[in-house]
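Thread: "does anyone have the structure for this chain?"

Original post by V.I.:
We have the sequence but no experimental structure in hand. Need at least a predicted one for the grant figures.
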Amino acid sequence: MKQTAEILHEYGPFPGIDQVHGVTFDGQRVWFASGDKLNAIDPASGTTTGAIDIPADAGTAFDGEHLFQIAADRIQKIDPRTGRVLSTIPAPGGGSDSGLTWAEGTLWVGQCRERKIHQIDPETGAVLRTIASNRFVTGVTWVDGELWHGTWEGDESELRRIDPRTGNVLEQVQMPPGVGVSGLESDGADRFFCGGGPSGKVRAVRRPRQDAKADGLDVSS
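Reply from O.Q.:
Generated one for you, tokens below.
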């Protein structure tokens, strides 16, 4: 059974921004990549609170202290206070990478058209393991031990919870027609932040209720 996404809030479009790529959350601000900069917004008000001029054409992540940003074939580690790039590591897809998130002391990187999610060493970029998906991977995030990724093929886009051991789909949340996911991050509670690609928007989507799963609404396929 598929669930339909409940969009809680739309942020943007923002002046001068025509693409949203990666999205992350630092506990207070939502950061999103827009090609030539990282932008920060206050999710309560939707106002822009800052920006870092830096190449930013795919996934974005936050480890509790630093931002990580994919730019072409590399992943940059960034001090969010100064905007300075502290180090870089190779991206596993060599330029075909999409989503990015931090969990378990490692980075998780989506490869869109290859339909893969890699867990990598954040110091070296070495691939530690790879999970296969059966759909394009357009964003990736962890929350409460659950691995979710975004998909977007044609006019159809979903959030999918998958088994991190097998890649099997455990839960699907379908976005409205014409609404795609181009980056994904959890707020650690009941919201997902989703990049909206060429809409220039970021959307907050309600995470499926945990009590609903306990009541038997969880699905497997």
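V.I.: this helps a lot. Residues 210-217 form the longest helix (8 residues).
O.Q.: and The two ends are 9 Å apart (CA to CA).
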